[in-house]
Amino acid sequence: MPSQDHSRLRRVIVAGAAGASLIAGMALVASTQSASAAEPAGLERVTVRESLLATYTWYRQVQDGHPVLNSFYVERKDRKTGAVTVEDGRAKITGLVKPLAAVAKNTALATAAKKAPGATTASELVVVPGATAKLAWSVNTTSNKGTVRTLVDASSGAVLESKSLVQKVTGTGTVFEGSNPVTNLQDETLTDQNDTNYAKLANAYKTVPLTNLNGDNTLRGKFAYDANPSPTKGTNNVWKFNRSQGGFEETTAYHAINSAQEYIQSLGFTNVNNEAQDFTTVGLADDNSFYDPGADKITFGTGGVDDAEDREVIWHELGHAIQDAEVPGFGGSAEAGSMGEGFGDYWGMTMALPISKNTAKTPAACLMDWDSTAYTTTVPHCIRRLDTTKKYPGDMQGEVHADGEIWSHALFDFHNAVGRDLANKIILEATFGYAPNTTFKAAATKTVATAQTLGGATAAAAAKKAFTDRGILP
User: Fold this and answer.
1) 155 plus 182 within the same structural domain
2) Are residues 204 and 272 in the same domain?
3) Region 423-439 average pLDDT
4) What is the 3 state secondary structure string of the chain?
5) pLDDT at 6
6) Could you tell me the sign of the dihedral formed by the alpha carbons of 346, 387, 305, 352, in that order?
């Protein structure tokens, strides 16, 4: 992940495996603790949380009796098997000698109130990691603008940081209604016309809320992060643009990525790409888009129809980020790569379904209707479909997009059989258990087993039938 001030941890560190990650500039220590080892030293229990399939026990790191800022350590215990894995967010503390507070608490409170006026709601001495760790007073002050955390150096009295903790600012922006104008207007004759905002598109727009913004008049927030070199600024957190203006693509991308994460969270998941996903809508003139796992960033091309105008394209690329977040390095085999493309197509469909018109003219199984007008002549315009007659293994071509249609069809049938929310809960949960180089058969078997756990015999039978109908399972 790039060394930017918005870098986030998202790689899972499994007990017994070596590795390291970065979070907020802190060097993390890879855990080698076994599942049966005692509670790690230097930790203080914070809380216990229950998810669908596991119990999570959260700790924070303590150094010389003081909590370490932004540190964490979490143990996940599988409810069924009892197996324990950990995610280790402890910081390496260097250069901290005799952490004594030379600055009195009242002095620190006065300094914080001067920097961020408001009522003091919390204060404590904390260790701030860095090249040279420091002891600081962490003071929260709250006003009608929300809470601000101020860090006051306990040795010098200098302000190290003053940061708003408010995370959910809601703005508004203009996007195409539905997933794209072709499905919304039911018009297969629409074309790009070099980014022109022409008359036929007049009724295609809609104003939508942009939730979870940081509040600094950029399209940067809790779940999506505009990484353009010069991000388009809003006016009082309002982005009102049309497709002839660059801000339109940025607004659409932010809204699509943010809404997808909100939906994932509504299913009960809190660790499926739960981060500010980087995206950029400039710099690639090709009619193509991609997710780069090395940079953890989605890049949308501007050739033909700008890809970020079609939310089905956005959600497809986000599908890759979702799988990479659940299974680091996913796609290490030809079949896994095909599953990645198939899941991306499926994710585009399932996110579009509640807001798009599923008709004979624009069926839900037809992907990226707007973007594909630039290079397809058949009607309806589809980059790919989720309802082809392809079966495994006879119709495998050795090309991941083509072979992905077999996997996406199975997911599509399962979705139709058990319903959107249950299907997605099962598919997302099952993906956690895929190997990076998995096969169609292994992943299908894992999905059927997960369906049994989360949906019972009826869901498991529907999953088995969907994969059997595609030739993936016997």
Assistant:
1) no
2) yes
3) 95
4) CCCCCCCCCCCCCCCCCCCCCEECCEEECCCCCCCCCCCCCCEEEEEEEECCCEEEEEEEEEECCEEECCCEEEEEEECCCCCEEEEEECECCCCCCCCCCCCCHHHHHHHHHHHCCCEEEEEEEEEECCCCCEEEEEEEEEECCEEEEEEEECCCCCEEEEEECCCCEEEEEEEECCCCHHHHHCCCCCCCCCCCCCHHHCCCEEEEEEEEECCCCCCEECCEEECCCCCCCCCCCEECCCCCCHHHHHHHHHHHHHHHHHHHHHCCCCCCCCCCEEEECCCCCCCCEEEECCCCEEEECCCCCCHHHCHHHHHHHHHHHHHHHHCCCCCCCHHHHHHHHHHHHHHHHHHHCCCCCCCCCCCCCECCCCHHHHCCCCCCCCCCECCCCCCCCCCCCCCHHHHHHHHHHHHHHHHHHHCHHHHHHHHHHHHCCCCCCCCHHHHHHHHHHHHHHHHHHHHHHHHHHHHHHCCCCC
5) 30
6) negative
pLDDT of residue 354: 96
Whole-number pLDDT of residue 135? 94
pLDDT tens digits, one per residue of 303-319:
999 999 999 999 999 99
Residues spanned by the domain of 73: 22-89
CATH number, position 143: 3.10.450.40
Mean pLDDT of the chain: 89
* Last residue of one domain, picked from the residues 121, 141, 164: 164
Q: What is the pLDDT of residue 89?
A: 87
Same domain, 140 and 183: no
The answer to whether residue 5 sits within a structural domain is no
> What pLDDT score does 311 carry?
98
pLDDT in tens, 271-307: 899 999 999 999 999 999 999 998 999 999 999 999 9
Distance of alpha carbon 59 from alpha carbon 88, whole angstroms: 10
Position 310 scores a pLDDT of 97
pTM over 0.90: no
